[in-house]
Amino acid sequence: MAKDSLLPEHSTHRRDFLKMTAGVAVPWILPSSVFGAFAPSNRINVACIGTGNQGSGILKRFLENDDVQVVAVCDVNTASYGYRDESQYLGREPGRKTVDDHYAKKSGTAYKGCRTYIDFQEVLACDDVDAVTVVVPDQWHAIMTIAAAKAGKDIYCEKPLSLTIGQGRAMVEAVKKYDRILQTGSMERSNPLNRYVCKLVRDGKIGQVKRVFTNVGYNNKVGPGPGWKPMPVPEGFDYERWLGPAPKVPYHQDRCLYRFRFNYDYSGGQVTNYGAHSNDLAQWGLGMDESGPVEIEYIRAKWLPEGSLFNTALETEFLCRYANGVELICATNEKPVGVRFEGTEGMVESTAYGWQARSEPASLVESEFPGGKVKGDATSAHVRNFLDCVKSRQQPVAHAEIGHRSSSVCHLGNVAIRLGRNVKWDPVAERFPGDDEANEMLLRPMRGPWVL
């Protein structure tokens, strides 16, 4: 792990320096009633890295739990508008305020105890942090997760787990090596309706599965085209830290915050964004949590003009073929994000976010979920599962290998899309046999000083 140069290296080793400075902070004492029956020894101290669009929502889910104390937030953006919903005012300071206001309300007294950081490495050096959330652009997932594992922290990492297949494998191995708990933020695994649908498929209730269809929406944000002009970096936004290991390029507001998803330097478009949900459900239903397809066929792709800021596919379709002959067809379209399994004796489909399922025969779903619907908050349940596993040291429902394999399906699709051709895949060796051009896409160069 490369060291950040903003802290002194001369008289004191950087990590020791961070530990000393973290140690001098005086903790803000909350009344025990705030945490219900949970004693300090049974409480999980959490630091939230990334408090933007998704990170702020995850932060609030952690605050729902009485056995959690959020002790710190970390973000490179002080505060601004410009997230997915333009009216959202998010960042480091709004995150701190969310935490402080929550504990002030619960305790009935003033509370100013949430620490703030710009540098995630300072967070990881804090001895009072048990677990971290990593809800940041994808180019940072591997670096932060591996560093957190080395620092002895458990990790809730947003989906897609990784930027590349090679980075994902490195994350899995680090979590194993340092005996950490990792939950991938594929919260649809904590939706009871999706759990039931995937079990129906695995139990053979629709017969032998022949085809699976997954929907990943479409690129709903269109950035500036060729000839776009750089913009001044806003005050309070550390653009260099935001870029991190990604190439050094001029700032534009549409490169950052929510829209990073549509630039290939930082993500993989809707194929990895929503595909991390729908293809994850496909993997689950097919019993492929520790494997994947053996062939990926390129079908179509539509792009913005060369030189546009957004360079992931606007529209696309690809087919994954598994060793048992099952075909998964993943496409961008306006249908709800979700999955449809077709077998020799029936069909079952489920939507992400919508909490709705349908089957043929209808009784498969209706017998357990009348109307094919269920209400609830999958994200809250997913966070709770992570917290329970932090205590029990059991594997969560979307552990590192699961997150890696589901993300890999998305990455494989993007490889075929960007090459414009079919590719073969070995899910055991995690290589493209005899295909140097495709194998070069398993990892991406990292800008110094960052390395895995």
Terminal CA distance reads: 6 Å
Number of helices: 14
Which blocks of ≥5 consecutive residues have pLDDT under 50?
1-26
Strand content: 15-25%
SSE ordering: HEHEHEHEHEHEHEHHHEEEEEEHHHEH
Oligomer: single chain
Number of domains: 2
The level of helicity is: 25-40%
> What is the CATH level 1 assignment of the largest domain?
Alpha Beta
The CATH level-2 architecture of the largest domain is identified as 2-Layer Sandwich
Give an account of the 3D structure.
This protein is an alpha/beta fold. The chain has 2 domains: 14-187, Rossmann fold (3-Layer(aba) Sandwich), CATH 3.40.50; 189-375 and 400-442, Dihydrodipicolinate Reductase, domain 2. 31% of the residues lie in helices and 16% in strands. The chain is built from 14 helices and 14 strands. It has helices spanning 14-23, 53-63, 92-107, 120-124, 141-150, 165-177, 192-202, 239-243, 270-273, 275-285, 363-366, 378-392, 400-419, 436-439; strands spanning 44-49, 68-74, 115-117, 131-134, 154-157, 182-184, 209-215, 295-302, 315-321, 327-331, 338-343, 346-351, 357-360, 423-424. It has an 8-stranded mixed β-sheet with strand order 13-12-11-7-10-9-8-14. Helix 3 links the parallel strand 2 (68-74) and strand 3 (115-117). It is globular and about 60 Å long. Mean pLDDT is 92; it is low at 1-26.
Which key terms come to mind for this protein?
alpha/beta; 452 residues; Dihydrodipicolinate Reductase, domain 2; 14 strands; Rossmann fold
